[in-house]
Amino acid sequence: MPSKSELEALRKEVKEITNKIMKLIGRRLLLTKRINEIKLSMGLPIIDYEVERNLKKSVINTCKRYNVDEHFGLRILNLLIDEAVKAQNRIKSDISVIDIFVLAKKMEKEGEKVIHLEVGEPDFGPPNEVKKATYDAISKGYTHYTEPSGISSLRESIANSLSERYGIDLSFEQVAVTSGGRFSIYASILSTLSQGDEAIVIQPAWPAYIDCIKTVGGRVINVKTNLEEGWRPDIEYISNLVNNSTKLIIINYPNNPTGKVLEKKDMKALVDLAIDKNITILSDEVYSDYSFKPFNSILEFHECKSICVSSFSKSYGMTGFRIGYAVSDIENIRKISRVQALAYTSVPEFIQYAAIEALKCKKHVKRYANLIRKRIDLVCKELRKMNLSYYEPDGAFYIFPQISKSKSFDSRKFTLNLLKNKKVCVVPGITFGDYPNFIRISACKEEDLLLEGLKRIGEALR
Ligand code: PLP
Questions:
Q1: How far is residue 274's CA from residue 132's CA, in Å, rounded to a whole number?
Q2: What radius of gyration, in Å, describes the C-alpha atoms of the chain?
Q3: How confident is the model over 2-40, as pLDDT tens digits?
Q4: How many CB atoms within 10 Å of residue 415?
Q5: Disulfide-capable partner of 248 in 168, 180, 199, 289 (CB 3.0 to 4.6 Å)?
């Protein structure tokens, strides 16, 4: 017969164990701090996935021995590892892109003229048809809340447009209309990852993925790619990183910042891995209309659990409209819609009508893509004259040149000096991962501005 005194005794033991765990965590943090100091002094990276893999194996064995759920054990381990890495990062001081952008804005306020080669926003606005559709929608009184997932006519138009493009059969219920592609990404990550779950991010990568994963308490597993190998991810290496906690692989092709488009065979290998290990692929395809070579959407691989994210921002010059979408199975779409219902109810109704019109403007999309390609070719030509190494983009808006062969080159400092002395704003490579000797140049400006900006970059490099 359970008694009050037994309950008290059990509670006392739980308290003691909890305190012991905390004491051990404190000891663990001290040890990892020392390990990190030693690694730093030896020039070794703080994160070592091989060491982590062994640790994970031993944790799984311990979990088995003591009847602890493996997934739970791995999540706790990930939280501990993250805490140790965070403690290390506190030592570093950073200049973020926002700092650079704020400084550029301050200089402009003071009357300086800055050439903005950092922005990922086309200088052309939306087609006139879209502008007119926006005014018309407001005049007709489409100024209300809508279903969180979007009005069904827009969801249907998106489903039809993608089905036609990729030869698939999507239903409108597989589409959620969100506030930009950015919110689709956040909502997808929030609905797929629990605390301590792992998400693989292929670098260089748009920084929002990592920020979103961290915000929801997930653990980022970075997979580096490099210029020498044409930014091609090593799928076998990725497969070695996968474990029970891996829930998501995030890909972005055409890629920001490299312009890479993944070969179909690599995409297939990644998809096979995801199917085999029951992992969801989150494919950010916001630049798919700016692909200069054949592009395969994740939607073409229907056997794979996936969320495809796209947007009206880049394809139709509608950045300020804040409208994008996610495509997935109906269950995921419900989850994503619940997140947006919670955050902002729905995308404004008239914006959704404007997006329906945008989908009819395919000829403008082609025109925009041709224009960007021409500008990218121009930038590449100038970079060649400067003898810089870069990957000839297969798509997107950007060129990611290596501006020094030295890994100790500090592109943040370079970027800051470039802004202060030459009035040109670019993004330092470190923003996209461990690429301190790269910068990202955006081809979203007119040719004369691009040429002048590149001329000044050349001067700064001399
Ligand atoms: N994904 C990538 C790779 C981007 O570069 C951007 C914007 O720069 C976005 C998503 C988000 O675009 P939006 O929220 O405007 O649709």
A1: 43
A2: 24
A3: 899 999 999 999 999 999 999 999 999 999 999 988 988
A4: 28
A5: 199
Closest residue CA from atom 5 of ligand 1: 256
Cβ pair 301, 275 in contact under 8 A:
no
Pocket test for ligand 1, best of 158, 186, 314 (most atoms within 8 A of CB): 314
pLDDT at residue 90 above 50?
A: no
> Does this model's pTM top 0.85?
yes
* Cα–Cα distance, 16 to 14 (Å, whole number): 5
What Cα–Cα distance (Å) separates residue 105 from each residue in 98, 407, 418? Answer: 10, 30, 15
- CATH class belonging to 128-360: alpha beta
Identify each DSSP E strand in 126-179 by its residue range: 175-178
The rounded Å distance from CA 184 to ligand 1 centre is 10
Place of tokens 């955050």: 343
Q: Pairing mode, if any, of strands 280-284 and 306-311?
A: parallel
Q: Which residue has the tokens 């390990």?
A: 35
Which one, of 422, 424, 423, lies nearest residue 439 by Cα? 424
Ligand 1: centre distance to CA 283 (Å): 12
> Which sequence spans correspond to the domains of the chain?
4-86, 97-120+363-461, 128-360
Ligand 1 atom closest to residue 323's alpha carbon, by position in its atom list: 16
Ligand 1 pocket by Cβ (under 6 Å): 120, 180-182, 206, 252, 256, 284, 286, 311, 313, 319, 324
Q: Is the Cα dihedral 229, 231, 236, 241 positive or negative?
A: positive
Per-residue pLDDT of 408-457, as tens digits, reads: 888 888 999 999 999 999 999 999 999 999 999 999 999 999 999 999 99
Domain spanning 97-120+363-461: CATH superfamily: Aspartate Aminotransferase, domain 1 (3.90.1150.10)
The predicted-structure confidence for 36-76, as pLDDT tens digits, reads as follows: 889 888 888 888 888 998 999 999 999 999 999 998 999 99
- Dist. CA 385 → ligand 1 center (Å): 31
Instruction: Choose which CATH entry (1.20.59.10, 3.90.105.20, 2.30.30.240, 3.90.190.10) describes domain 4-86.
Output: 1.20.59.10
pLDDT tens digit string along 250-294?
999 999 999 999 999 999 999 999 999 999 999 999 999 999 999
Evaluated on CA atoms 44, 45, 46, 50, the torsion sign reads negative
Q: What is the distance of C-alpha 90 from the center of its chain?
A: 23
